[in-house]
Description:
The protein is α+β, with helices and mostly antiparallel strands. It has one domain. It has a seven-stranded antiparallel beta sheet. A hairpin with a 3-residue loop joins β2 and β3. The chain starts with a helix and ends with a strand.
Amino acid sequence: MSVFKARKQQLDLTRLHVECERNFRRLQRVIPESKTLGATTRFYYEGQSSSGMIVEIIEVTKYTSTLLITADRSGPSWLSEIEIKVRIYRDAQMAEVIEWCSDRTIPWALSETTAMHERDEKWQWNMFLSELLCHGLRVGVTELEM
C-alpha cells in the first residue's frame, strides 16, 4: 500500500473529535478559567527558567474562547518559535487548532489538497497540540496569572 493511500485511510472524524475532547480536558488543567480574557499560564521546564510554553486567552465569546500558545524554540537558531491558536468550545467541551505560526489558517474541511494543505493537516496539528500539552503537564512547572 502506498504512503498516500495509508494517510488517506487514517482520516477519521471520530478520532479527531475524541482528540479534541482530550485536548479540552488537558487545557482545563492548564488554564482552568477559560472565560477570563488575558489570563495566562506559563510552563517552565525542569531547571530552565527561561524556556517553556505560554498559554494566553486572547478572545472570549459566549460559548468559545481563543487561546494563543507559544513555545520557545529549543533547537537550532533557524527553527522559529512555535505559535498555535486554539479555539475552545465550552458547550461542546472540545478544543481544536485553528491556526499555527501566524501565517496559516487551517480550514474546517480539507477535501482536497489545495493551498499546500494536506488532507490530514487538521489531525496532525491537533495531535501536535496533544503532545505539547502532555509534555507541559508532565515535566513543566506552571505559573497562573490572571
